[in-house]
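Narrative summary of target 7.
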Amino acid sequence: MLVVAVAACGKAGGGSGGGNRKSLDEGFAVGLLLPESKTARYESFDKPLIEKNLLAACPKCTVLYQNAEQDASKQQTQADSLLSRGVQVLILDPVDSRAAASIVARAKQQQVPVIAYDRFASGPIDAFVTFDSERIGQEQAKGLLAALEQGGDPKRGPIVMINGAPTDPNSGEYKRGAHAILDGKVTIGFEVDTPDWSPDKAQQEMEQALTKLGAHNVIGVYVANDGMASGVIAALKGQGVTPVPPVTGQDAELAAIQRVVAGDQYMTIYAPYARQAEMAAKMAIAAALGKPFEGTSIRENASGHKVPTVLLPVIPVTRANVKDTVVADGVYAAKDICAGAPATACQQAGLL
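Modeled conformation, tokenized:
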């Protein structure tokens, strides 16, 4: 790990903000731009946790929030609005990594530093915090492969891969990580990238796959996140496939944890959002104040800028460790999980 000052971040990333730097005593405005609300995590976890961490460190600060609803043009307009309102730093989770370069350029013109959150952005951003996306794909694939091997030869039938939105730079890393584990060990009968991470589109794609491959021939489904997993499982059940073959996911949404406990979804990925939000808040405040930020490595984004980065670890969750992960960390109470999962399954998971 490298120790990098924010001034150095500005040099690496093309210039840190600061002509109008404030202090914690005076407070300042922080702009927060999130990409969409179809994935439950953004409104349920990221937004409130980032706000909580920012205001705990800077009680006189204000957080100006916008959600782009998966529209890159809308996010550009929202960024322009926040910059015109005088934010001192932007936390940006881009809808489209490359399109976000124009947001970064506008911010730099106004000497406003930009912290990329969860998804890498193009342009001279000042810092980036995310989870190890390639590792997420690997863990999803390892979980799926282990489940397939429990049933016999993992090549005994085809699997389906429902990947994430092609405009999200993380999607390619999830897919690359998954292929690194699955290629040569399974038969991939159908694979597709899903626009907008849409559960409805994922359901339609799964229906197409079942028509092509035969509903009862599919032995497993790699799905990049939990929202799409809900659509995939609906398609499988709609075709009368029982039991549902192993299905992966990501984000540890409450509905997904309930499906994992119930046995409808084999696994999900738990990314401790509290740590990510805390790190983003620290980065944003340090950048706005022009103070050193420690504990970063360097990654190069699509525009060739070297960006100080923090990669956080992730945890695979199956029924066997729900109690020791999302329940132990206080993300969900056992009673809330069991409100949407059968009592017998909750007992088997040690939740009752």
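Residues 1-19 have pLDDT under 50 and may be disordered.
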